[in-house]
Amino acid sequence: MAAVAVGDQFAFGIVYDRYADLVYSTTYRVLGDAGLAEDAAQDVFIRIWQRPESFVPSRGRFLSWLLSVSRNRAVDEIRSRGRRLKREGRSLDPVEDHDSGYRDESSQGIDPLWAAELKESQVAVRKALEDLPREQRRVLAMSYFGGYTQQEIALQLHEPLGTVKTRVRLGMQKLRQALGDRT
Amino acid sequence: MTTGLHIDPEQADEYAIGSLEPELEHAIRLHVANCRDCAEVVADAEMVVARLALSAPLRRAPLKMRDEVMVGAGLRKPRIVARLPAIAQAAAGIAAVFIAVAALAGMFAMRSQVRDLQGENLALRDRVDDIDSAEVQIFAIGQRLEEAEEIVAEQRSEMALDSELLGAMLSTNSQVANVVTMQGKSSIGSLVWEADQSRIWFYAQRLRPLPQGQTYELWLHGNGNYVSLGTFNADDSGKATYRRFVAEGLDRYDGAVVTIETVGAEQREGDSIFYAYLIDR
Ligand SMILES: [Zn+2]
Question: Which residues in chain A are classed under CATH 1.10.10.10?
Answer without folding.
Answer: 112-183
